[in-house]
Specification:
Keywords: Transferase. GO terms for molecular function: acyltransferase activity, transferring groups other than amino-acyl groups. The chain has a single domain, classed as Gcn5-related N-acetyltransferase (GNAT) (Aminopeptidase, 3-Layer(aba) Sandwich). Helices cover 40% and strands 19% of the residues. The protein contains eight helices and seven strands. α1 packs across α2, α3 crosses α4 and α4 packs antiparallel against α7. The termini are far apart.
Length: 231
């Protein structure tokens, strides 16, 4: 079935997929219990019309997956909203979509820093294979419009309580002016994947609890959690 999947730049002829895409985005977020910035069908359709999206489908037109480009401050690009239809997950199509949207971003914005926020280890792995590195939130765009997009996420209160320094998502960045090779970032991810997995789990546990004694208690020594997530 994978051989029949077409992965290409979306266009105005694909707008009929927009509602299906946004519905699946919302359903997937609820299933994970993490949430993503909600987008309307009109917003997705506009990305298609602008040629700033990648879509995957079968030869018979069955929708398979999607991702789109956002730009911030003229310096940052985000590959956002990666979603694959449930029946095609674990088929390798997500990697194909990510690679195509990454290449499209490099074609359109060759000097821009490409970044992403993710709660999934699988997406971290794909990003690493493209040359992304885990970074702190301070290295991302500070454009208020970008952060406003997080308001519809179920974790928005966590983000704001941490003064936008960290949240459930892990930030990753590709800087065309200063980056390791994809081979190096892939090797580094493989070496630390178990650590990342444990840290994500701990992060979910910590952020899942209400903060207590914010102004009280002795300060704790800095740990790996501090340096990776900013605790």
């Amino acid at each position: 079935m994978e051989q029949n999947i077409n992965v290409r730049v979306a266009n105005s002829g694909d707008v009929h997929y927009a509602e299906t895409i946004t519905t699946e985005m919302e359903a997937s977020a609820k299933a994970r219990g993490t949430g993503i910035a909600k987008r309307s069908p009109e917003y997705i359709a506009n990305k298609m019309n602008e040629g700033k999206a990648v879509i995957a489908h079968l030869n018979d037109g069955t929708w398979v997956g999607f991702c789109y480009i956002e730009t911030w401050e003229g310096e940052y690009v985000a590959n956002s909203g990666l979603i694959v239809a449930p029946e095609f997950r674990k088929s390798g199509v997500a990697k194909q979509i990510k690679r195509r949207i990454f290449n499209l971003s490099r074609e359109k914005y060759p000097n821009a820093k490409i970044f992403g926020l993710t709660t999934g280890l699988a997406v971290m792995k794909i990003n690493s294979e493209l040359g992304y590195e885990p970074v702190t939130y301070s290295e991302l765009t500070q454009d208020e419009k970008f952060w406003a997009g997080c308001k519809s996420c179920v974790n928005y209160d966590i983000l704001m309580s941490k003064e936008r320094k960290n949240c459930m998502c892990t930030a990753m960045l590709y800087d065309p002016a200063d980056h390791y090779t994809p081979e190096e970032t892939t090797q580094e991810f493989e070496k630390k994947s178990k650590v990342y997995e444990r840290l994500m789990h701990i992060k979910q546990l910590v952020f899942g609890k209400k903060e207590k004694n914010i102004n009280g208690g002795a300060s704790k020594p800095k740990s790996l959690m501090h340096y990776f997530f900013g605790y």
